[in-house]
Design brief:
By secondary structure, the protein is an alpha+beta fold. The chain has 20 helices and twelve strands. The protein binds protoporphyrin IX containing FE. Protoporphyrin IX containing FE (HEM) binds near residues 318, 321, 449 and 458.
């Protein structure tokens, strides 16, 4: 008995020793080696703490930026949205490196490098999200397209892509315009008899984005999904905390208050989604919307088979990726047109010319709305909802002079490249939609609000159709100015949004 106990104790000690050695290797030795290789190339960054990296520095920079709104409504916003793209390169040059725990994040710049990283077809870069290996951060997007990589990602992408092809998206135009119309009817009721009244368009467009997504992708109505959105909003806040904090393996099992809330949120979201799938599943299966396609895939016996848990993960991803981003595009576009009245007039004239004052735009109208398109493109340049994208080098990679060690996370700063004077000229920080006139295009790695390469945004068609339609319909019925109560404070909360809302004064026309 005594010998057995001693043996068990020894086995336990050996297992503990192996665990500690593994930790020392992955938390200390690997980062140290990687840092040395980057330093030898002259790549520097803020001094890091051994365990938490630069998480605290990053948090402090963001908190300082967040504490003060911009003095006026101008578009030189990178320093507020992502202060580390301004403060650290000023001290350490480009490219630079910072650390989240033991993970190096190499921030690169320039269209060539951006394109090479994102369009890589050799398998050198893995599509990884900010959530990376942090299981607490992965809760928000589950194991859906945004967070997946490799074979599973390719499989999901093949099933899901057809749900958002242009022909199918065009087929949704009547439903989307009915939803926009009902939002605008509510604005009118809200205005009562007043000639001018204030609306927070950020809130309005979030509700709209949720409605549209629920209807076209899930065949359900917004009310059913509303609870899920509320839960996901709370989850987003906890996820952001998790991303900025070093994740110690196994920490999620410790019953802290936040961990317990994370767990119950996750359970409740999955339960609500399961219910939503049950209610809408039969309705959807015949139609070719997202849920229908995934449910059909769940019944096949081939490589396209998807399980119910995988479908739930995709639903979580789409609720998040689809609603936030498009709502923010519409919010910034409206604010920009409220500020730049000459463009508001130009766009409205175009809408009147193409589809009149009362007709809901159809697919042909939308492709004729060239100025609306230019305005949306310029909005996506100055205020890209996705501020950056990440990839992880899964082997050592040579990119020009850069020698990127395996395991490095490469951060491609969309917003910084979009504001670069070397690309956009001296007026890079100004709102000038004419830079997109006559279909003028730019280097693939210079303008990429939807990403580029194989993982390019799958919902891009839906986002652009929804945004064009909504903006055109708002302009048909309302004129708007920036409200005196609007405070210009763009901030990144997963996506780029206005910190204190987007108040505009609207007038019925
Ligand atoms: C203005 C609106 C939008 C913007 C700016 C935007 C931007 C992006 C960006 C930058 C990526 C990352 C690409 C990469 O990793 O290289 C992405 C991926 C993705 N987006 Fe969007 N997006 C928008 C709207 C939507 C909508 C409406 C949906 C769904 C209905 C959606 C679903 C997704 C999904 C699922 C992915 C992951 C694609 C993959 O990894 O294969 N997005 N988006």
């Amino acid at each position: 008995m005594g010998a057995l106990a001693a043996l068990l104790l020894l086995a336990g000690l050996l297992a503990a020793l192996a665990y500690v050695l593994r930790l020392v290797h992955s938390l200390l030795w690997v980062p140290h080696r990687l840092e040395r290789r980057l330093r030898r190339q002259g790549i520097r960054g803020p001094p890091r703490s051994l365990i938490s990296g630069n998480g605290a520095d990053l948090g402090a920079l963001l908190a300082a930026a967040k504490s003060t709104p911009l003095a006026s409504f101008h578009h030189a916003v990178v320093g507020r949205v992502a202060p580390y793209y301004r403060v650290w390169p000023a001290r350490y040059g480009w490219p630079f490196v910072f650390w989240l725990g033991p993970r190096a994040r190499l921030v690169v710049t320039g269209p060539e490098v951006a394109k090479a990283v994102l369009t890589d077809s050799t398998g050198a870069f893995d599509k990884s999200t900010t959530a990376g290996s942090n299981p607490q951060a992965r809760q928000l997007i589950g194991e859906g397209l945004v967070g997946l990589s490799g074979e599973t990602w390719a499989h999901h992408r093949r099933v899901i892509s057809p749900a958002f092809n242009m022909e199918r998206v065009k087929g949704w135009i009547p439903e989307i315009s009915a939803i926009v119309s009902s939002m605008l009817d509510k604005w009118e009721v809200q205005g009562e008899t007043r000639t001018e009244f204030e609306i927070d368009v950020h809130k309005e467009f979030h509700t709209l984005g949720g409605d549209v997504l629920s209807c076209v992708a899930f065949g359900s109505c917004y009310e059913e999904g509303k609870r899920i959105f509320q839960l996901q909003e709370e989850q987003t806040e906890l996820v952001i905390l998790a991303i900025r904090t070093f994740y110690f393996p196994g920490f999620r099992f410790i019953p802290t208050k936040k961990n317990q809330r994370r767990h119950s949120l996750n359970q409740e979201i999955r339960k609500s989604l399961r219910k939503l799938i049950e209610i809408n599943g039969t309705k959807c299966e015949d139609s070719k919307n997202l849920l229908g396609l995934m449910l059909s895939a769940s019944k096949t016996d081939n490589e396209f088979k998807m399980g119910i848990e995988e479908i739930i993960d995709e639903c979580k991803t789409f609720y998040f990726a689809g609603k936030e981003t498009t709502a923010n595009l519409l919010t910034w576009a409206t604010l920009l047109l409220a500020l730049h009245k000459e463009w508001q007039d130009k766009v409205r004239n175009e809408v009147y010319q193409v589809c009149g004052k009362y007709k809901h735009p159809n697919a042909d109208h939308l492709s004729s709305l060239k100025i609306v398109n230019m305005v949306l493109k310029e909005t996506l340049r100055l205020y890209p909802p996705a501020v950056f994208v990440n990839r992880t080098a899964i082997r050592d990679v040579k990119l020009g002079k850069l020698d990127i060690p395996a395991g490095t996370q490469v951060n491609v700063p969309i917003i910084d490249i979009h504001h670069d004077v070397d690309i956009w000229g001296a007026n890079a920080e100004e709102f000038d939609p004419s830079r997109f006139a006559d279909g003028k295009s730019y280097h693939l790695g210079a303008y990429f609000p939807f990403g580029i390469g194989p993982a390019i945004c799958v919902g891009q068609n839906l986002a652009m159709v929804e945004a064009k339609l909504a903006l055109a319909m708002v302009l048909q019925r309302f004129a708007f100015d920036v409200s005196p109560s609007y405070v210009h404070a763009p901030m990144m909360v997963m996506t780029l949004q206005p910190q204190y809302g987007a108040q505009v004064l609207v007038r019925k026309i």
